UniProtKB/TrEMBL annotation:
Residues 22-49 form a coiled coil. SMART domains: AAA. GO terms for cellular component: proteasome complex. InterPro entries: 26S_Proteasome_ATPase (IPR050221), AAA+_ATPase (IPR003593), AAA_lid_3 (IPR041569), ATPase_AAA_core (IPR003959), ATPase_AAA_CS (IPR003960), NA-bd_OB-fold (IPR012340), P-loop_NTPase (IPR027417), Prot_ATP_ID_OB_2nd (IPR032501). This is AAA+ ATPase domain-containing protein. Pfam families: AAA, AAA_lid_3, Prot_ATP_ID_OB_C. GO terms for molecular function: ATP binding; ATP hydrolysis activity.
Length: 310
């Protein structure tokens, strides 16, 4: 009787360990199957033609979505079974199959790569401080500036400064070029005065002014405008309460009249070389003055537009 119980216990242990090993093998098989399917899908994606980039506008049903392609038209499309449909929210960038227009994969949000490669030392308190410490303005009882205008000759670094601010602040940076605001197809009521393009630009300006006046006092929305022709701006943009700060690069112009951004970079490089020749690890004002003279001698000054403070 004791031998029978001992033999049964040994058989149970043997079967238990065999079952445990079999369970582990099944788990490994599942993982390998997933890796195989992923590799197969990646190979199919590499062998297939290019895909269309689109943006999800709305989810109609559990399987159907309205997607706007980058080339303009909108489609009602399906989705791959492997994708998590809960992540397909309005505004998500997706890749569409060239033939069936099926949503194949998610794409990261569109950003300007130059923004994240910029750095700054001290851009000022016009844009950064109201976004990072709005409670300071609330305690003092003043209204923070809604935006600033950077103006100066071409090549002085206005756009680079805006990118530097966007790189260092933990906020979304929306880049808008003035020429892209005007729509290709103009709708709405027609008026007798002016051309259609003039009316469209006027409506765009009025909407911009309305949005600037409609901003909340401490709302985390700020505007940075850059132009090299401040004389052509509408005076309504420059009145107090809209663009409160106008920043002119006076120091740069005084240091090197007629130089552009590339010339100023050469000045810094030459100043560093002068410091190296003098066996120093720092650059002095004299090094900069020598570098300015050297670059100015090798540069033919082109015609320039004189900028006056607004």
């Amino acid at each position: 009787m004791a031998d029978t119980r001992e033999k049964g216990l040994q058989d149970y242990r043997k079967n238990y360990w065999n079952t445990k090993k079999l369970t582990g093998v099944r788990e490994q098989l599942r993982e390998q199957t997933k890796q195989y399917e992923k590799s197969e899908n990646d190979l199919k994606a590499l062998q297939s033609v290019g895909q269309i980039v689109g943006e999800v506008l709305k989810q109609l049903t559990e399987e159907k979505f309205i997607v706007k392609a980058t080339n303009g038209p909108r489609y009602v499309v399906g989705c791959r079974r492997q994708l998590d449909k809960s992540q397909l929210k309005p505004g998500t960038r997706v890749a569409l199959d060239m033939t069936t227009l099926t949503i194949m994969r998610y794409l990261p949000r569109e950003v300007d790569p130059l923004v994240y490669n910029m750095s700054h030392e001290d851009p000022g308190s016009v844009i950064e401080l109201p976004l990072t410490n709005p409670e300071l303005f609330l305690r003092v009882g003043i209204i923070p500036p809604k935006g600033c205008l950077l103006y100066g000759p071409p090549g002085t670094g206005k756009t680079l400064l805006a990118r530097a601010v966007a790189s260092q602040l933990d906020c979304n940076f929306l880049k808008v070029v003035s020429s892209s605001i005007v729509d290709k197809y103009i709708g709405g009521r027609r008026f007798s005065e002016g051309t259609s393009a003039d009316r469209e630009i006027q409506r765009t300006l009025m909407e911009l002014l309305n949005q600037m006046d409609g901003f909340d006092t401490l709302h985390r929305v700020k505007m940075i405008m850059a132009t090299n022709r401040p004389d052509t701006l509408d005076p309504a943009l420059l009145r107090p309460g809209r663009l409160d700060r106008k920043i002119h690069y006076e120091a740069i112009v005084k240091l090197s009249d007629g130089f552009n951004g590339a010339d100023l970079r050469n000045v810094c490089t030459e100043a560093g070389l002068f410091a190296i020749r003098a066996d120093r690890e720092y650059v002095t004002q004299e090094d900069f003055m020598k570098a300015v003279r050297k670059v100015a001698d090798s540069k033919k000054l082109e015609s320039k537009l004189d900028y006056k403070p607004l």
